[in-house]
Every structure is written in structure tokens, then in C-alpha cells.
Automatic annotation (TrEMBL):
It comes from Comamonas testosteroni. Keywords: Hydrolase, Signal. Residues 1-34 form the signal peptide. The keyword Hydrolase applies. Its EC number is 3.5.2.17. InterPro entries: TAT_signal, Transthyretin/HIU_hydrolase_d, Transthyretin/HIU_hydrolase_sf. This is 5-hydroxyisourate hydrolase.
Length: 171
């Protein structure tokens, strides 16, 4: 059964009236999108992240987005840049929570400089038995960062899959 022709125009008029009312509220003198309304600045920390009783440190957390779980068993080589090349500090395997068992840098080892975490994602997915094309699109993924202020605590959340990865500075 088709709607009667007299109902269709009134539905359209109702919808158009609602759109016009919403548009006038947004562009009016008191509307949220008025031209003279300043845009809010992005939220930024005003100082270092300080946790009471916790010294500044570098920590990480790896999540496997392909399997939707912590990257348990991922091998990572951690290095420091000496001005010419990255010099290995240590290698570790990510634990069941997706983290290193201890902070990567803490106390006297927490110094300013450039660092790299090399994630062996090809080995990780092979060990997991992931059915992926060969050769792998990603093999070794470098995560590079710079520590400037050693009073700040830095946490690196890392997400990766067979075709992409992302990381960010956390606290």
C-alpha cells in the first residue's frame, strides 16, 4: 500500500522545518558555530607526569590488533643512538600482559637521548601460526623516540598487525 499523496508533503515539510530550525540555531547570534566563536586549543600537559612515589621511567605496552590480544611472546631489541648508530642495550620478550617485565629505563639508566625498539613482528606472527602471505609485509618494525626531559614519565602504547603499526606517547 502506498502512502497517500497528502501525507508525503507534510512529512517532507516536517523534516525540512526541523533542518531549518537546527541550522538557524547553529548559525544564529548565540549559535555554537558562530563565526566569532574561538576554537578550543588542544589539551596539552603543562608539565611532566608525576606519580607520587614512582620515579620517572620508560615503559611500553604492545597489543596485537590482528588477534585482538596482548602481544605475548613478541621479541624486542632495545637500543640507544650513540650519534652514528643504534647500540643494543638489551633484548626482551613481551610478557602475558603485553609489557616488558621491568621498565626499559629507570633511575640512573633513564637518560635523555634517542632510542629505538625493534619489534620482530615477522617472527611473532610465524610463532602464532598466523596464516599470512609470504613474504610478510612487515618484518622488523622500528619504534624510535627521543627523551628530552628526564623528569617526565614516558609510556609507549604500541599497536601492530601484519600490515600496519602505530604508537604514541602515553604517561
Amino acid at each position: 500500500m502506498h502512502p497517500s499523496p497528502t501525507l508525503t508533503p507534510s512529512r517532507r515539510q516536517f523534516a525540512l522545518s526541523g533542518l531549518m530550525l537546527g541550522a538557524s540555531a547553529l548559525t544564529g547570534t548565540h549559535g555554537a558555530l558562530a563565526a566569532d566563536t574561538p576554537l578550543a586549543a588542544p589539551a596539552q600537559a603543562t608539565g611532566p607526569i608525576v606519580l607520587h612515589g614512582v620515579s620517572p621511567r620508560l615503559t611500553m605496552h604492545a597489543v596485537d590488533t590482528f588477534h585482538g590480544s596482548a602481544a605475548t611472546g613478541l621479541r624486542i631489541d632495545f637500543s640507544r643512538f650513540d650519534g652514528e648508530t643504534y647500540v643494543p642495550i638489551r633484548s626482551f620478550v613481551v610478557n602475558a600482559n603485553g609489557r616488558a617485565d621491568e621498565p626499559l629505563l629507570i633511575d640512573d639508566s633513564y637518560r635523555s637521548g634517542r632510542y629505538e625498539m625493534l619489534l620482530h613482528v615477522d617472527e611473532y606472527f610465524a610463532a602464532k601460526g598466523a596464516r599470512l602471505p609470504r613474504p610478510a609485509f612487515l618484518s622488523k618494525v622500528p619504534v624510535r623516540l627521543q627523551i628530552v626531559n628526564t623528569a617526565e614519565r614516558i609510556h609507549l602504547p604500541i599497536q601492530f598487525g601484519p600490515w600496519s603499526y602505530t604508537y604514541s606517547r602515553g604517561s
